[in-house]
Amino acid sequence: MTNLDAPAPAPADLEGDLASLRGDCARMAPHWTVPDRDTARPVPPSLIHGVSVPVTSARLLDAMSDYGD
After folding, report:
1. Distance CA 56, CA 41 (A)
2. Smallest Cα–Cα separation from 24: which of 35, 12, 33?
3. pLDDT tens digits, residue range 46-61?
4. What is the DSSP letter of 66?
5. Pick from 10, 12, 9, 30: which is nearest to 21 by CA?
6. Which of 6, 29, 45, 67 is 20 to 30 Å from the Cα of 60, by its Cα?
7. In Å, what is the CA distance from 11 to each residue of 8, 15, 23, 24, 27?
8. Residues near 33 by beta carbon (within 8 Å), at least 6 away in sequence
């Protein structure tokens, strides 16, 4: 049996603006959960294997300064 008194769903606004996107996000935010953060632990180099870096990329990275210089 259909409920004839129920309001029709609003059509999806695919061409919405930033304000409508922010409103959608604000309505969905209570439904999102934040996973517990695990602290990252360093990986010993002996466990890293099978990674190959092209020589040109290695030279490029070697020539770059460290972050924050």
Report:
1. 30
2. 12
3. 888 887 878 888 888 7
4. P
5. 12
6. 45
7. 9, 11, 16, 14, 17
8. none
CA distance 25 to 10: 17
Residue written as tokens 């632990």? 41
- DSSP string for 1-61: ---TTSPPPPPP-TT--HHHHHHHHHHHGGG--PPPPPPP-PPPGGG--S----HHHHHHH
CB burial of 4-32 (b: ≥16 within 10 Å; e: otherwise) equals eeeeeeeeeeeeeeeeeeeeeeeeeeeee
Query: Is-contact 12 5, C-beta < 8 A?
Result: no
pTM exceeding 0.90:
no
d(CA 55, CA 9): 58
- Joined together, the tokens standing for residue 16 give 């919405």
